[in-house]
């Protein structure tokens, strides 16, 4: 019970902070927040690929510096976003999540070297960071919709899987995930897309819109499984311990890393 209370309290505090920053923070404070999240995630990523603590700190510092450079180069820092440049920063991450991550997880292909692991970290973390900065610059509502999609998918997967789950989704990678939870997540996200359709006022048909939401949900599952695969290879249960009851930053943003790039490209037409 105490663990559940700690987990719930952490989630509530994180949600309040996120909402306040998303809708009320000045641009510089939002950028600082995203840089802090990406920096913490980069430190955890470095540790997962077997860097020492000092090396992981250096890796996190370089990652934040690269994010700052991209923030300026893409025009997000000034509000004059250069769409082709922003897309170039995000597309490599999307390619990884669509084409490489599912294969690596399904066939449990190990990283050939730490260097490859570090490069993949830059691709995924920087792509998600730029997407988060760009989405908020254009529309806080777009950003909130993407985060809500991940939250709905996670929540539905947990409760449906707990109630009906028996057959494991990918036991060698993540023993707690079931096919029932997987289908529950897709169904909940499809319903979310249908509800959101008239609110967003999009031009495409409702079927295509809902199908796109399901596709994004599949990427969320991929992000979750890939981080579980990284932890399994590192021999750890959590990516870190900075969030009481939740583990590390990567444990909380794993699905978002995969969802944010496609959301930015789709909704912002980069």
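Sequence proposed for the structure above (270 residues):
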């Amino acid at each position: 019970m105490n663990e559940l209370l700690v987990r719930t309290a952490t989630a509530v505090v994180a949600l309040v902070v996120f909402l306040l920053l998303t809708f009320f923070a000045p641009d510089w404070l939002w950028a600082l927040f995203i840089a802090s999240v990406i920096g913490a995630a980069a430190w955890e990523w470095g540790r997962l690929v077997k860097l020492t603590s000092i090396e992981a700190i250096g890796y996190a510092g370089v990652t934040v510096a690269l994010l700052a450079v991209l923030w300026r180069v893409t025009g997000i820092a000034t509000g004059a976003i250069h769409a082709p440049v922003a897309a170039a920063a995000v597309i490599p991450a999307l390619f990884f999540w669509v084409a490489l991550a599912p294969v690596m997880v399904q066939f449990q292909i190990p990283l050939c070297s730490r260097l490859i692991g570090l490069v993949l970290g830059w691709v995924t973390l920087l792509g998600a960071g730029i997407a988060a900065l760009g989405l908020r610059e254009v529309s806080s509502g777009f950003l909130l919709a993407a985060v809500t999609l991940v939250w709905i998918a996670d929540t539905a997967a947990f409760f449906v899987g707990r109630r009906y789950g028996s057959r494991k989704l990918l036991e060698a990678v993540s023993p707690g995930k079931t096919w029932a939870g997987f289908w529950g997540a897709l169904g909940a996200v499809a319903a979310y897309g249908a509800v959101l359709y008239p609110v967003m006022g999009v031009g495409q048909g409702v079927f295509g819109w809902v199908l796109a939401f399901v596709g994004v949900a599949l990427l969320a599952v991929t992000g979750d499984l890939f981080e579980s695969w990284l932890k399994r290879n590192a021999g750890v249960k959590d990516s870190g311990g900075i969030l009481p009851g939740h583990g590390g930053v990567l444990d909380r943003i794993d699905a978002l890393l995969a969802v944010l790039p496609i959301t930015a490209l789709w909704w912002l037409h980069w």
